[in-house]
Amino acid sequence: MMSVSLPLTAVSTLMPMHAFVAPDGLIRHVGPTLEKISGGAGLIDQHFMDHFEVVRPFGIKNFPDLYEHFHSNLRVRMAAGARENDSLTLRGSAQRLEGQEGMLINLSWGISIVEAVQRFNLSAADFAPADPSIDMLYLIEVNNAAMAESKRLNERLHGAKLQAEMQALTDPLTGLGNRRSMDNVLSRLVLEGIPFGLMNIDIDYFKQVNDTHGHAAGDRVLQAASDVLKQETRTDDYVARIGGDEFIVAFEGLTEMDKLMGIAERIISGFERPVPLEGATASVSASIGITVSTLYERPDVEMMLDDADSALYQSKREGRSRATFLNRPNLQEPSRSTIVKFGGARAG
Amino acid sequence: MFGLINVAIQGFVEDTYGRPIWEQIARAADVDFIDFEAMLSYEDALTEAVLDNACTILRKEKSTILEDLGTFLVTNPKMERVRRLLRFGGREFEEFLMSLDELTGRVGLAIPDLEMPQIDIMKHRNGQYKIRINCDYSGYGAVLVGILQAVADDYGALVLSELRIDPCEAGFLEQIDLELLETSFSEDRGLDLAAGLTA
Questions:
Q1: Which residues of chain B does A148 touch, with a Cβ-Cβ cutoff of 8 Å?
Q2: Facing residue for B197 by CB, picked from A114, A125, A134
Q3: Inter-chain contact B110–A121, Cβ cutoff 8 Å?
Q4: All domains of chain A, ordered by start, with CATH?
Q5: Phi and psi, residue A225, nearest 5°
Q6: Which of A143, A297, A315, B41 is buried deepest, with most CB atoms within 10 A?
Q7: Residues of A in contact with B104 (CB under 8 A)
Q8: Taking Cα atoms as reference points, which of A122, A127, A153, A132 lies closest to residue B109?
């Protein structure tokens, strides 16, 4: 078979990570990159097996094993402690020499490339000219940059989406939820089988405020009303403005009539506190309808909203400034079996 | 035109002339937003409108603006990534020059959306280099002149270059004559391979 012979300098250029190992396992020569990563201690006349653990092929425990059963595909682990504590796995192949005793082992980084470049501060000169590692590093670098840029764009788009969703679920005037967000909350409560109270609140005499003092005054009253609602509810409760002067509160886990009527009473007195306007005060009150999920065998959002609405109109009919607590579900004529309790002192 | 190119133009104008000038150019070019996105694609006409309006507002020749853009891409610290990626072309300036014909393929491998014209390089016996770009859109040559000057400086080399633009079948033939006067005129800034491996 034809054979070639090369000076060691040429071998070092072609294979900067080679090692010549004598049959006794002593390293006789290494390429410049392998020398560089050995950390200055030097590899010459050291035992190959002291520095490299053979992972593939299996079962190679000492150098004579490798020498006798050499294999074209080699995977070695740089022995722990050679540089840092954690070891790097290198790929390569081992071939027996012709005409002289010994073995030429050539190694490459494989997928350890990124770690190796960082750990050993490698430069382009540490790679063989034919080695595509530099192109791989180039791709990794561009890929990192492109991924970072894409991530940045995605985050920005995601932020814009969240903001749009937020706006779509929030009443901009009061910062309370809107009809859509209330529907989401109620659906969740029903779906998860959580008992809850539902309160429908309408501002009494709101139209007069708007007609007499203008829309800005009306907005002021709505803000004051939402402040009262925020104050009189717990953080677990959900408050939404669902129409011009109509609010809904969902009380998670709260279905007792006494407590809900107490809250309704406080809301009504809160609404009745005069709202200062420029040169005037606005005076309003509230009519309230209440239903609770425990009244229903299978609570239904639409039905409960209708019932709360019916109860609210019952309060209106009875003379406003009061709350009506429904005690039977789905009634066309709630007046026949509702408990009506007066709220504030203001007379309709 | 891929967003990266537009982002580079925007970054150059903002960094060199200030944000208000960029906003003025963007408005004049009828861009209905202010900031380009690097990973989105835009109409070629938009890029041309931006450049034309930049010429008017900055009162500069297009070739001057593009050459300055090329220099900016290599020398501005915010564009360090571009400098690094160019430096992957070779360990010495001459090796980098001789790898210019691989640049388009290299970029295409990394960012397929970023269409770049093919660059060819030849070395003449008198030591001069001829770099040719065939493209349907004139302007790459001027950017490359700025890039080459700045990269030469980065390697510590000293070069002299001249750009010629001729109409041809494919659109434009842009040709750069480059003379490498000295290879180690100043200090080489080098390339730290590890610096770019973490995002």
A1: 199
A2: A114
A3: no
A4: 8-131 (3.30.450.260), 179-342 (3.30.70.270)
A5: -65, -40
A6: A315
A7: none
A8: A132
pLDDT per position as a tens digit, A167-217 = 788 888 898 999 989 999 999 999 999 999 999 999 999 999 999 999 999
- Strand-strand pairing, A196-204 and A27-30: unpaired
Chain segment A71-124, per-residue pLDDT in tens: 668 999 886 544 555 678 899 999 998 888 999 999 999 888 888 888 888 888
- C-beta atoms of B88 and A134 within 8 A: yes
Q: At a CB cut-off of 8 Å and minimum separation 6, what does B158 contact? A: B152, B180, B181, B182, B185, B186
Superfamily (CATH H level) for B69-191 = H-NOX domain (3.90.1520.10)
What is the ipTM score, two decimals?
Answer: 0.74
- Rounded Cα distance between A301 and A114, Å, is 57
Provide the whole-model pTM. Answer: 0.64
Tracing tokens 């998860």 back to the chain, one arrives at A192
Sequence ranges of the domains in chain B: 3-60, 69-191
Q: What's the token pair of residue A213?
A: 């003092």
Mutate to test the interface with A, among B42, B107, B193, B198 (most CBs of A within 10 A): B193
Q: Are B2 and B41 in contact (CB under 8 A)?
A: yes
What CA–CA distance (Å, rounded) separates B161 from B141?
11
The partner residue sitting opposite A138, judged by closest CB among B85, B91, B194, is B85
Query: Residues of A44-68 as b/e, b for ≥16 C-beta within 10 angstroms?
Result: eebebbebbbbeeeeebeebeebbe
Interface of A with B in 101-140 (CB under 8 A): 114, 117-118, 121-125, 134-135, 137-140
Residue of B nearest to A156 (CA): B37
Pairing status of strand A103-108 against strand A18-21:
antiparallel
Within 8 A of A135 by CB-CB distance, chain B residues are: 88, 106, 109
d(CA A292, CA A200): 11
Measured in angstroms, the CA of B147 and the nearest CA of chain A are apart by 18
Q: CB contact, 8 Å: A157 with chain B?
A: no
Which residues are CB-neighbours of A339 under 8 A, at least 6 positions away? A257, A324, A325, A327
How many angstroms away from the CA of A125 is the closest CA of chain B? Answer: 7
Residues B178/B147, Cβ–Cβ less than 8 Å? no
